[in-house]
Amino acid sequence: MSCQPRARRGALRQHGGMTSPSIVWFRDDLRLADNPALRAALDRDEPVIGLYVLDEVSDGIRPLGGAARWWLHGSLATLDERLRERGSLLVLRRGSATQAVADLAHEVGAGAVFWNRRYGGGEREVDAGIKSALRDEGIEVTSFAASLLFEPWTVRTGAGDPYSVFTPFWKACRELPAPRAPLPEPREVPGPNAHPDTDDLDDWGLLPTAPDWAGGLRERWEPGENAARARLRTFLEEDLGSYDAARDEPAGGATSLLSPRLRWGELSPYTVWHETVDAAGTGRHAASAHRFLSELGWREFAWHTLFHFPALAEDNWRSSFDAFPWPRLKPTHLEAWQAGRTGIPLVDAGMRELWHTGHMHNRVRMVVGSFLTKNLLIDWRRGEEWFWDTLVDADAASNPFNWQWVAGSGADASPYFRVFNPELQAEKFDPHGQYIGQWAPEYRDDGDADARPEPLVDLKESRRAALDAYEAVKAAR
Fold first, then answer.
1. Which of 238, 270, 308, 357 could anchor a disulfide with 182, C-beta 3.0 to 4.6 Å?
2. What pTM was computed for the model?
3. Residues 325 and 378 in one domain
């Protein structure tokens, strides 16, 4: 990292009448409410400059998928608007975060840089290097807990090891001090007198144009903190009571739809936690609230696992699974799965919902994942890569963690012999065919039978083939 000499940096501090402004480096926390890094900057009583760096070049940083890039554009535009309403602004820079953060700190003569922590291996290395370099120059640098309820290194087994099974992990979390109360949203964010140079968001090319495949995303979603808060209120007021009973029904509407809000940090988990506890009440609502909070716990468990196993998207968490004899990939099978043309109604409906909306019901995610890995015998990494590119809520922990769970190679994984039968799953969770009829209408009773693709595989025979292949894993233990 190239750094300007201290004398030059001191001169920049006087530019535009600024003394020592604070930089808030936004990452996966695109919000003003309950943002500890922003609060720390305001407490310095100096001008505040927001910064977002689109880093697709640093070692260990995974470039975003297409759907995530679409969401990021909308969320950044909203964050910039909200900061400007309060008196500050958002500076956009592209490239190495190490260089971009240092460059802005030197340009404005920053006295402090604040951010909220990231937990992936590559991100932690980048952050540690930036923190060390800036501190060596006399700049205050502090990071905060804002994206997880429980820091991954604070939850350990009695032997001091990370957890590998969810139930005892979540029990240990619940025995720790309760998550802190969320911080209020600031009414004012004082900005600098002179605005630093910033990239034009439109020049980043985050939105698809040729072709524009995001029409369905625009129909389903509105990125941004205000929309996130509105969705949380709607869920707690209208859907929480039925969550426990109806959350597995893809056409039931009892899901929270908060996953992309949490992924991008438009909502903090602390806000979701405390508002859910406040809305829990008794009886059915209390049971549903308990169930929903455990889903927050599952998200925590995914990040706990990634923190201790940074190669989660590339390597089998269970090393014995390295012996699984994945057959040679049949590209036509993978392409049919991606397009929702497998001939299996629930699988096809789920994959088409994903392509159209950038989202898929959680129960259906398990079904399509099981079908790919255990009926088509395609490596879970191919599915993880497709979800990374097409989900608006794909993050570095939950996406590979859940794929490894359903494949049988991950922490607390579903036993390999548990193969989700998509026909039985449809009978149980979509008994009237509403979900399938919406997304794959040719399978309806009145649908076009000629438009129905032939099944790629026989479900029973392919299940037996998967179990036979698994014998190699069992032998390697």
1. 270
2. 0.94
3. yes
